[in-house]
Amino acid sequence: MSAAKTKAQAIIDNNAVDDGSEIQSALYELSNQTTVPNIFINKIHIGGNSDLQSAQDKLPEMLKDAGAL
User: Fold this and answer.
1) What is the CA radius of gyration of the chain?
2) What is the DSSP string of the chain?
3) Least confident of 8-12, 31-35, 55-59, 61-65
4) pTM of the full predicted structure?
5) Which among 32, 63, 26 is positioned nearest to 47, based on CA atoms?
C-alpha cells in the first residue's frame, strides 16, 4: 500500500462514525473552528476550504514539507 493511500485512509469523515460529534468537539478545541472541512497539514491548522484556496501558492511547499509529495 502506498504512503499516500495509507495517509488518506487515516482521514475520518465525522458524519460516518458514531463519535463524529466528539471528534468535531475535539477539532474545535484545537482550531476554534466549528465548520468543515477543518484542514490541517503537518499538524498546522490551515482552516477551511476558503483558507486552503487562499494558500494555494504555498500549498505545494507545505505538502512537500509534510512528506505528502
Assistant:
1) 13
2) --HHHHHHHT---TTSSTTHHHHHHHHHHHHS--SS--EEETTEEEESHHHHHHTTTTHHHHHHHTT--
3) 8-12
4) 0.66
5) 32
